[in-house]
Write a structure and sequence with these properties.
Layout: E1 2-6, H1 12-25, E2 31-35, H2 47-67, E3 71-74, H3 82-87, E4 93-95, H4 96-107, E5 111-115, H5 121-131, E6 137-142, H6 149-152, H7 154-171, E7 176-180, H8 188-195, E8 199-201, H9 202-215
Parallel strand pairs: 1-2, 1-3, 3-4, 5-6, 5-7, 7-8
Helix pairs in contact: 1-9, 4-9
Bound molecules: [(4R)-2,5-dioxoimidazolidin-4-yl]acetic acid.
């Protein structure tokens, strides 16, 4: 099977790291293609960044449809454009936040999230509520590091994340920790060893869920709200989408 892993920000180094983490965990026979949009924010740290990156996600799904991808992963912890992406394909589309929440609740009754900047914490809280996991998450914590510090100043970023994970372990009454950024995909084992708790990150969780869904022959339902968008005129910079039949 072919899984297209979409990093919604435009930082190629982070896309490569996300791709490596996905390949390490993928089953034999699973082909991973890790991509990012050409246009958009170099990192996603706000509602505005999310809104812009969502368009890039839909464009990468449309490219994947031309390449016959069997599943898609949206590799940003805000799951930007997830529902729109699901409308554009029959293939399963999995957000890394959603995937991590599912896995965390299978191995613990309560978990905490450790993300990058405090200001994006609300985005994780909104997802917890909309996916129905709010009752399982004790706290959304932030290491207060800009996303690209994970690329540019890895060790200092790592130390801040581990410190916050230890606080979560000692203060939140939890059984597991969810890492709140695609750019943390390479830190799971190291942090779990350092903190002594199960640590889940969404890229690898999503790869395993994608393999399970494809293996079960399950596809995105086209009955109801995730049906293909109706063709219609688009104006301005989106006029090339006019009257597109997405199916
Ligand atoms: C992510 N931003 O996973 C989110 C993390 C965050 O560019 N990739 C990003 O802080 O919301």
């Amino acid at each position: 099977m072919h899984i297209r892993v979409i990093n919604p920000n435009t930082t190629a180094a982070m896309t490569a790291k996300i791709g490596e983490a996905a390949e390490r965990i993928a089953a034999p026979g699973t082909r991973i293609s890790a991509v990012n949009p050409a246009s958009g924010p170099v990192s996603i740290e706000s509602h505005f960044d999310e809104a812009i990156s969502a368009v890039g996600v839909t464009e990468e799904v449309r490219r994947g449809e031309a390449e016959g991808a069997d599943a898609y992963i949206v590799a940003c912890f805000g799951d930007p454009g997830l529902m729109a992406a699901r409308e554009l394909t029959r293939a399963p589309v999995i957000g890394i936040a959603e995937a991590a929440f599912h896995m965390a609740t299978l191995i613990s009754t309560r978990f905490s999230i450790v993300t990058t900047l405090g200001r994006t914490g609300i985005i994780a809280e909104h997802l917890l509520a909309s996916y129905g996991f709010a009752g399982h998450c004790r706290r959304v914590r932030a290491a207060e590091i800009p996303v690209l510090d994970l690329e540019e100043d890895g060790d200092a970023a790592y130390q801040r994340i581990v410190t916050e994970c230890r606080r979560a372990r000692d203060e939140d009454g939890i059984g597991a920790i969810v890492l709140g950024c695609g750019g943390m995909a390479d830190l799971t084992a190291r942090i779990s060893d350092a903190v002594g708790l199960p640590v889940i990150e969404g890229v690898t969780a999503a790869v395993k869920l994608a393999e399970a869904l494809v293996g079960l022959g399950l596809q995105t339902s086209k009955h109801g709200d995730l049906a293909f968008p109706r063709p219609k005129p688009f104006t301005g910079r989106f006029s090339e989408l006019s009257d597109t039949r997405f199916e």
